[in-house]
Amino acid sequence: MSSWSSEHIFEHPWEDVVRAAYRKYPNPCNPAVKGVDVVNRSVCPQGTIQSHRLLSTEFPLPEVAARIIGTPEKNFISEHSTLNARNKMFKLESRNLLGANDHAMHISEHSKLDRSKSTYELQSKNLTLGHLVTVHERMEYFPHPQDRSKTCLKQQSTVKVNVPFLSGYLERLLIENFEKNAMKGRNGMEWVMDRIKEEDSSNKVKQESSDILTQLETKFKREAEDLKQSMDSFFHKTQANTSPL
Amino acid sequence: MNSISPECQELKEKYDACFNKWFSEKFLKGNTKDECSGLFEVYQECVKKAVKDHKIDLWELEKPVLGTDKEKKDPS
User: Where is the PRELI/MSF1 domain (chain A) (predicted)?
Assistant: First the structure.
């Protein structure tokens, strides 16, 4: 098993970051994520939200690993998260699931080790990625202790590969991928935050336009009524001063 | 973003729109009363059916992890 961790600072306040975290997909930096659904969610009046989400991804293996392990089927990720608005902490934990065909796979029956070619082929008929590769990821978003206009992200990933002889090598390959993927994830968050800012200002403009129109409407109505009253009063005076002869 | 299952797409979009709006305009401002639970219930029924249909390992989905002893600790 191999682990990797990193820390990052977003130049945005915590509220903006967590809004983006809930809306992270789709974004052009993470095209591998194909589907997201909320399996369960509970909101506590004390200010916490527990969520359980299911993500479907194409698991992009480095080419060398893909040649050894085979082409994976659709990969599912189960993500549990807890957001605590009181102490401004958003924790997420995810792992990939066994795939749709979760039958036990006996590697010895389906494998062929060719020492002469130094290749290890796995017939991938009943193969699902989850049997061979387990990825756990954990993330925490919290306000920067010295600067509340910024948000810290702590991220840890562990990977375990169940391929005899090659697990160390493949794990190292996958770990190298985590740094690249982490950067894509952060860029994805920045992109989503930009989109949210645009939405917010567009909504603000719409609301302000609507408010101005309402104010103008009220003003015109009032002026129209004032004018009507003035006219009525003028006619009354005129009638009173004109006595029939 | 797509749902795992096309049947749930519309329900997902309605629920997501409600949740995102409520989260930023109400929850983050201190009003923690859930306003989207009705939409969520319908959407959730659809998702649970899709999970069964896709034969996704259900036991994984039922177990809470954070806050229990299953929560991963910092690797040291």
Answer: 1-201
